[in-house]
């Protein structure tokens, strides 16, 4: 047990000892423990421009002494600068935008403001907090899919502060902007909350949507200031500027107080008694481990949140903890519950307040509790699996910690390469700056529909194209004109038909056609999935989760765009297997390093789902079911490296060591590819499901051994680009993840992939390390540094021709 300088075990250390009590030493799961110190608050005076009424209202809502970052951000916004406030969880970002907006309202009774959040629930929370302040003349109102028709006219005509989301702005507000003329004329501020969530394809859509919004506001003579709120991220200024398409200043110096926290990294033990794919060992699942930890912490009386990746996982983890408690402390079983999206707002409120006042002690939740919900000051947080980004990791762990008392955060690694890497590289988790979100507003697949929408909203003028990407926009417009969707006139580009293009754009999708998921018995539409990923997610036999309910797919009718499902809750989950082929269409950048090249470019990925695995929650694989589905072609961006045969097989004296025997090359490349896909999310803020890969010993287009990692969305989302630019640290981390795993020949924690089309065959773990050594040595040597320099953030310039 670790003690404080005064000789006393901290509360957090006691909790950790409790969670590990009785675990045999050779199975001790904790790989690292770190203590993060408490932080004292720093206060600033209310600026002179804040009217007394507003100051009093904000003080009454709990912020009687503002923190310096709140005043810094608010003052910038007040002075007319776009600002992004990127500070920690519960650091009072709301006040940073409430202050300028409410102050402006108090001095200009025609002023209006728009608040946008990625979710309806968060917008509702923020609306409630502004309404509760009860400041005269603010007239705040929600305008989203739930707003009754009867109220919409009132909101358009009278509301001054409208709380909405990107989807509604796109479909409901911009297309009928003339009915919103009053609102746009007065538009002084646009608040973009939780903006770090706008990444990948969704981020690219929102970036273009914000450009459309600014254009329409200018049409009415307004020029709103944007105030963005973000979790802490690297380069918030650059990201926000890219998202807005306009200059934006960052405020990052967090002056809010925070309690001390103990962070424990935890790797569940290998279970030798269970067999996974190809008989690889599996680890105890992170969810099952989280349930045990949750139960132990509840017994200690610690108010605990366990974050789990899926809704079903949240239910299972809560259930698991309840079962354990039912045996050892039955009176505590009812103090545990699950929380996830899909519950009614009242149910959610009730769960939140029960957790805050101690009626509940343990709650297992999805990331529904991550965004915005004002729950903090808990005794402990358990994260079952890396949530995908460091921003989310800190957001979730930030729910723990009260001033004056320390709190425990336990990160439980799942059975995959990224989690394994993090469990063994605490610095990568605890000391790295949070990654910047990636988005690509120049993606023609995203740009085209937004230019069509913009033209339909108001004819596009040549002078307006710069904000939409200049030449990229001109090329896309030419295509839209050729397709007769737009007409070019001397005064600009015009939308040609009476139908609006807006309904065909799905901001959260890939731009591909949507497949409707329909319950066959009732004809109820459950949801939609991207056409591009439908074969992988709603193939016959797939288990499909909707709002926590489980369905099984009976039929996928691609021609009519419908997947028919029935309600069923089998104990297994399914994961599709596909075979993939890749063709290089254009190499955009190429760097060569004596036998190794690193490339970025456009590719065509042809894939076919050929079957699926059925897997038990324990990780055990039940069977593989074959499927017969058509091929799909995806045009996207990829990063790839090639290694020449001489170097790869050790015939040329390369710097990377002995080389790989020819027979082992396919397995070595394949394993290196899987691990690299697993680690890219560390650098590119994507999910491993957003990217794919192909490896081959001799690729038709490159003529050499090649490993590709490609974006999973049409046109790309910026992930491959990020991989290209962070090539050395990315492959260095990949190598370390593989070598850190103690399994003998490859398992899900290192080189097996949950979605491999070839059933994870062939895979050569040692060969993968050799390939990565050869590549990193060649690149490192050409650049004059060793590959152990993981800090080198960029591929060095081409030096070897
Ligand atoms: N200056 C202040 N002094 C004391 N309490 C404050 C201050 N500013 C804000 N708070 C309180 O801190 C809590 C968190 O504020 P808020 O929800 O704005 O944080 P946030 O940074 O937006 O959180 P999240 O990370 O969840 O988005 C609220 O209960 C709020 O009333």
Helices, strands, pairings?
Layout: H1 11-20, E1 30-36, H2 52-60, H3 68-78, E2 83-86, H4 93-107, E3 112-116, H5 120-133, E4 140-142, H6 149-158, E5 161-164, H7 166-173, H8 181-185, E6 187-192, H9 200-219, E7 225-230, H10 236-244, E8 249-251, E9 261-266, E10 270-275, E11 281-283, H11 286-299, E12 304-308, H12 311-328, E13 336-339, H13 345-357, E14 362-365, E15 380-384, H14 390-397, E16 407-412, H15 417-424, H16 426-430, H17 444-457, H18 471-482, E17 486-489, E18 492-495, E19 514-519, E20 524-530, H19 531-537, E21 543-546, E22 549-557, E23 562-567, E24 573-593, E25 596-615, E26 621-626, E27 632-643, H20 645-648, H21 665-679, H22 681-684, E28 691-696, E29 705-711, H23 719-725, H24 727-740, H25 765-783
Parallel strand pairs: 2-7, 2-8, 3-5, 3-6, 4-5, 6-7, 9-16, 12-14, 12-15, 13-14, 15-16, 19-23
Antiparallel strand pairs: 1-9, 10-11, 17-18, 19-20, 21-22, 22-23, 24-25, 25-26, 25-27, 27-29, 28-29
This protein binds adenosine-5'-triphosphate.
The site of adenosine-5'-triphosphate (ATP) has 15 residues, from helix 4.
